[in-house]
Amino acid sequence: MTALTLSTSSAATLRADIVVVGVAKGDKGPVVAPGAESVDQAVDGGLAAVLETLGAGGGEGEVTKLPAPAGVKAPVVLAVGLGPVPADGEAYEAEALRRAAGAAARALRGTKKAAFALPVADAAAVEAVGTGVLLGAYVFTEYRTAGSGGNGKKKDKAAGDSVKAPLAEAVVLGGKSRDAACKAAVERATVLGEEVNRARDLINTPPNDLYPATFAEKVQAAGKEYGLKVEVLDEKALVKGGYGGLMGVGGGSARQPRLVRVSYTAGKNKPSLAYVGKGITYDSGGISLKPAGHNETMKCDMSGAAAVFSAVVAAARLGLPVNVTGWLALAENMPSGSATRPGDVLRMYSGKTVEVLNTDAEGRLVLADALTRASEEKPDAIVDVATLTGAMVLALGHRTFGIMANDDDFRAAVHEIAGSVGEQAWPMPLPADLRKGMDSEVADIANMGERMGGGLVAGLFLKEFVGEGITWAHLDIAGPAFNESAPFGYTPKGGTGSAVRTLVALAEQAAGGERV
Q: Which tens digit of pLDDT belongs to each residue from 439-477?
């Protein structure tokens, strides 16, 4: 993990391997952003002209390297694009800083020490830069066959390529190390960065190593480290307890399901939140087998559980005055002689019966049991997170998750929170007319309904299992949870850790006494 520190030194005087400056897109060409004044002065105010000559325009995520001018102690300058210059009197938005810092950190893999001289007007900007750095520096090398290599590289003997180690140290310039607000900003950025990256590691771990039992073991280990209470229900307890959804989905695998409860308790009379995560550690589709080309990345179908787990740990590490309980519904969906068949009827933990029309609509089945169980503790609100439907990807693309809820105000609040932390989301409806499509002739409800609006149908199914009078929201992160395209900003290829920051910010809002 990249070490994050603060310094009041100027960009020209700090000793580092490279200094990062910001450049924005102006009406008449690139504009050097605040924070880089000393570097600009070293070229007599001509840094923008030099960058323009090199082809830099200040566009978002654009990276340009150049030799440092005389008078700058770092040997190299890296200019990163911030996007458009803000209107007069306005500061750069936090997300612009996060993305720029992330893009720079990605370009600095293999570097020992970098100074970030980006526009840092206050503690919030310090946190944005720090978070962007830690998220952008992320690299997953657990399964690389490493040999010794120069410049912080690990050699993959099998593939023959080189994987550069993350940036070792990032110094954020402009923030005062003794200022309480700046110090807290670095601490929060560190927790967020580490916990989002924890989720990413879990998502990127192959399913032969991460399955329900080993996932539960990782939660137990973190519980001991951070003082969390962890309870694990194995297959025997799930059968005895009547968890028909979890056993119906996970019963086809040799690796049996688990329901994990991980809780952080701040004290009595504190607000309480329950987070429920879909944890399908591998999704073959079951008997309704996925076609070739659709199952190679299905290790990521536990991204919701990873997000919930990381968010609970983050709440504990930040010491938030709110009680947060995570419910991880863990199962592997495999075809076998013991697998659920299309046409089977499952009796859920709630007592309701579900006709299974498609075994590849499995996430809603495990979530249904967990939602019912979470409801029994009567939290102030429940939020579930799941890579639930391809329909949501069709509706919103690969970078935006959908938000559904049984309360319009709560849905709007979650949408606003997501935007404030830089996670793209969009409020979606739960049309009552779509419920009829899930009527079953043999059971209380079917696990499939109308094909059109499939993401909304799934939300309506989940709503059936939320306790009476409990505020609830559903985040369908199927699009942004796993990035199969090129990395961008602070988002890597592979697992992204989508929704972790939204869940943490929601807990912080609840801790502040705001309605949830």
A: 999 999 999 999 999 999 999 999 999 999 999 999 999
Burial class (CB in 10 A: 0-12, 13-18, 19+), 312: buried
Paired tokens of 54: 């090199």
Percentages of the chain per state (helix, strand, coil), in multiples of 5: 35, 25, 45
What is the spatial distance between Cα 230 and Cα 263, in angstroms, rounded to a whole number?
Answer: 7
Lowest mean pLDDT among 153-167, 189-203, 341-355: 153-167
Of 60, 164, 505, 65, nearest in space to 315 by CA: 505
pLDDT digits (tens, 9 = 90+) for 300-316: 999 999 999 999 999 99
> Active-site residue numbers?
290, 364
Q: Please say whether the beta carbons of 248 and 274 come within 8 A.
A: no
| Beta pairing class for 494-495 and 29-32 | unpaired
- Compute the average pLDDT of residues 45-67: 96
* Among 420, 461, 455, residue whose Cα is nearest residue 438: 461
CA atoms of 93 and 408, how far apart (whole Å) = 27
Is residue 503 classed as helix, strand or coil in its secondary structure?
helix
Q: Do 302 and 209 form a contact (C-beta atoms < 8 A)? A: no
H helical segments located in 301-445: 303-318, 363-375, 390-396, 408-420
Determine whether 274 is exposed, middle or buried from the number of CB atoms within 10 Å of its CB (0-12, 13-18, 19+).
Answer: buried
Number of H helices, E strands in the chain: 14, 22
* Global confidence as pTM: 0.95
Greatest pairwise CA separation for the chain in angstroms = 80
> What average pLDDT is seen over the chain?
95
Burial environment of residue 221 by CB neighbours within 10 A (0 to 12, 13 to 18, 19 or more) = exposed
Contact between residue 402 and residue 458 where contact means Cβ atoms under 8 Å apart: no
Contact 140, 201 (CB under 8 A): yes
Instruction: Report the distance separating Cα 492 and Cα 502, nearest Å.
Output: 18
Compute the half-sphere exposure of residue 417: CA atoms within 13 Å on the CB side of its CA: 24
pLDDT in the model for residue 176: 78
How distant is the alpha carbon of residue 137 from its chain centre?
Answer: 15
Task: Round to whole Å and give the CA distance between 197 and 177.
Answer: 25
CA distance 298 to 286: 12
Map tokens 């799930």 to a residue: 238
- Kindly state the average pLDDT of the residues 380-392: 98
> How would residue 149 be classed by pLDDT, with cut points 50, 70 and 90?
very low
**Tokens representing residue 329 in the block:** 């519904």
Q: What's the average model confidence in pLDDT over 45-71?
A: 96
Contact (Cβ atoms closer than 8 angstroms) between residue 432 and residue 343: no
Rounded Cα distance, 457 and 436, in Å: 10
pLDDT tens-place string over residues 249-299: 999 999 999 999 999 999 999 999 999 999 999 999 999 999 988 899 999
